[in-house]
Amino acid sequence: MIVKDEIGPEFILKVYDPKVKMEGILVVDNTILGPGKGGLRMAPNITEEEIFRLARIMTLKCALYKLPFGGAKSGIVWKGGSLSLKKKFIQSFAKKIENFVPEKYIGGPDVGTGEREMEWFSKALGKWEAVTGKPKNFCQKIKNKIRCGLPHELGSTGFGVALATKLACEILGLKLENSKVSIHGFGNVGFFTFWYLTQMGAKVVAICDKSGALFSKDGFDLKKIERFWKTKKEISNFKVKAKKIKLEKFWEIPVDILIPASVTDVINERNKKKIKAKMIVEGANIPMREEIEEEFFKKGILVLPDFLANAGGVISSFAELNFFSKEEAFKLIEKKISETTKEVLKESLKKNISPRKVATILAKKNLFKKTKWKTSSKI
Fold it and tell me: How confident is residue 153, by pLDDT bands cut at 50, 70 and 90?
């Protein structure tokens, strides 16, 4: 369901290119704080509702972290094909929404897209600033300054998710070291969350992608996983001493921390009762509906919501557009996620309301500060 309220959405644009049969959607939810920021998703079954829900999360995320962006999201129906066809789809979509870019919309990587696709998009419009998450060697000289891309392949989102997890453990009095963690989804976000959490001392015992899942009670070797991940092969092809399990059994593994880092509504009515975790950290956007989150909270399972936990990517986007180096970007991510996670969780514990409710109220207050609108929500 698309909610129409005091926030938005401002624009919903559907496009189609009969020449290549490209079908796409752009939702610009809100631009009070700046141009709508949100990734470009390519998947076979995207819907207008899903793109709206993702755009709304971006509105709240940027407002919560006090970034000069609004919220938006875009998607292309992509059922697979050659690289040349994918490039044609990206270029066609970019040209169809050109009038919105970058004044109303700035794109970025998402499911099915990465730095390569961002370069295609930018070059199709001849606008370096059309998207973020571009390759580090894709640069532009402006007023004697060189601006280069900060690809999400550097791991900014995963770093933020791992850091938020660590901070939550500290605030709740839990020990991250040797905590058992499972990660659903092993793309950019899932892998780098695994990498950073392992470095922090956590024990990741289960990983999966759409091809299958692996369980190892003693955890996984970081270097072996890193070498395998760089091959871009599916987990079902990974030859390692671990138990192969069916995807539906993944949710039944008892862990301290569960991190959904895959696709929309992956935690749902079919599997929510199987989950045995003390904490859920949302690495992906909208991995479950809000009512399911609230059920977990009432059961005593803390859920760090998506727009709090996975903001590393959009903070990196801000850094990219402002000439930051990788080191400067990661320092900014650390500062912002540390401050905001502590603020939200301490208020959640103090008032005994879910982190999502606290974060939503704070985001709306930031969003409406400069307008006549006033949020009636109170903590």
Answer: confident
Alpha helices in 176-325 (DSSP H): 188-199, 222-230, 290-298, 306-309, 312-321
User: Are 329 and 156 a contacting pair, CB within 8 Å?
Assistant: yes
Closest CA to 109 of 139, 78, 75: 75
Distance CA 207, CA 263 (A): 14
Q: Rounded CA gap, 328 and 289, in Å?
A: 34
- Picking from 101, 137, 105, 103, the residue whose alpha carbon sits closest to that of residue 119 is 137
Catalogue all structural domains in the chain, each as residue range(s) with its CATH number: 11-153 (3.40.50.10860), 156-311 (3.40.50.720)
Give the residue among 109, 124, 123, 55 at the shortest CA–CA distance from 316: 109
- The amino acid present at 317, given as its one-letter code, is S
Token digits of residue 188: 């950019």
Cross-strand bridge partners of residue 102: none
Q: Is the pLDDT of residue 282 over 90?
A: yes
226-247 mean pLDDT: 89
Measure the CA–CA gap between 215 and 242, rounded to whole angstroms.
6
Separation of CA 263 from chain center: 10
- pTM value is 0.94
**Alpha-carbon gap, residue 31 to 10, rounded angstroms:** 8
Looking at residue 47, its pLDDT comes to 97
Question: Which residues, including other chains, have CB under 8 Å from residue 263's CB and lie 6 or more apart?
Answer: 43, 111, 185, 284, 287
Whole-number Å distance between alpha carbons of 283 and 313 = 11
Residue count (the chain): 379
Active site residues: 73
> How would you classify the pairing of strands 243-245 and 212-215?
antiparallel
pLDDT-derived band at 376 (thresholds 50, 70, 90) equals: very low
Q: What is the number of other CB atoms lying within 10 angstroms of the CB of residue 132? A: 28
| Whether residue 377 has pLDDT greater than 50 | no
Say how far apart CA 105 and CA 31 lie, in whole Å.
9
Distance between CA atoms of residues 324 and 326, nearest Å: 7
